[in-house]
Write a structure and sequence with these properties.
It is a single chain. By secondary structure, the protein is mainly alpha-helical. The chain has a single domain, classed as IL-4 antagonist (De novo design) like domain (Four Helix Bundle (Hemerythrin (Met), subunit A)). 65% of the residues lie in helices and 0% in strands. The radius of gyration is 13 Å and the shape is globular. 27% of the residues are buried.
Length: 104
């Protein structure tokens, strides 16, 4: 984890992503989709008016959108790849697409 301490919000999302991985491995695709949507709601701060995502959160949001698309098109292996990448971004192991220096 490269000495990165996740916030409670990031930890909640990370736990949902773990549940997505488990659901995919067990063939419970409806459950996986529910977890993706819950993680996205937490990420977007849907319960907080005027919440603005930072670059890391925006990167994870984009990955979750992709996972929803791949899951709905029965591309389960690709879905899992995106879930694992999103989890790595949250943990600080991987740089998100919107965190690149050239975008700032």
């Amino acid at each position: 984890m490269l000495n990165y301490k996740m916030t409670n919000k990031e930890l909640s999302i990370y736990n949902f992503l773990n549940k997505v991985e488990n659901s995919l491995e067990e063939g419970q695709y409806e459950g996986a989709l529910d977890c993706i949507l819950n993680a996205r709601d937490i990420l977007a701060g849907n319960r907080l008016p005027h919440y603005k995502m930072d670059n890391k959160e925006l990167s994870v949001w984009a990955y979750l959108n992709e996972t929803e698309f791949y899951l709905e098109n029965s591309q389960y292996e690709r879905t899992l790849d995106y879930i694992l990448d999103a989890r790595d971004i949250l943990a600080g192991v991987r740089c998100g697409d919107f965190e690149d220096d050239f975008l700032e």
